[in-house]
Amino acid sequence: MKILEEKENNLLNRKEIKVIVDAAKNPNFAEIAKDLAGHFKVDESLVKVKKIKGKFGMGTFLITALIYKTAEEKEKQNKVKAKKK
């Protein structure tokens, strides 16, 4: 795991991270969240993986993720609004 970018966003109480991961097959969101939680020493429930981007045949994947400071902040920022009919 190689960290490309790590920004602290104090307004939204989170870290914004871009990481490159080497893997033989496509990693899933749960695996990446577990790896990031272990690397940054936070609870796995505070990690939100936004995007996993890979190129065909390369074996490297660009991961974009957010690590929140509290579960309440994660819940507040990730509310899903219902569509109006």
Report on the structure:
This protein is of the alpha+beta class. It has one domain (2-72): Alpha-Beta Plaits. The protein is built from 2 helices and 4 strands. The chain has a 4-stranded antiparallel sheet with strand order 1-2-4-3. It is globular and about 40 Å long. The mean pLDDT is 90.
What is the structure about, briefly put?
The chain has 85 residues and is of the alpha+beta class. 22% of the residues lie in helices and 40% in strands.
- Mind telling me the CATH superfamily name? RRM (RNA recognition motif) domain
CATH third-tier fold name: Alpha-Beta Plaits
**What integer value in Å does the Rg equal?**
14 Å
What is the name of the CATH class? Alpha Beta
Run of helices and strands: EEHEEH
Terminal residue distance:
44 Å
Low-confidence segments:
none
Record field, number of beta strands:
4
Order of strands across the widest beta sheet? 1-2-4-3
Q: What attributes does this structure have?
A:
85 residues, alpha+beta, Alpha-Beta Plaits, four-stranded antiparallel beta sheet, globular
Blueprint (SSEs and pairs):
Blueprint: E1 2-9, E2 14-22, H1 29-40, E3 47-54, E4 60-68, H2 71-77
Antiparallel strand pairs: 1-2, 2-4, 3-4
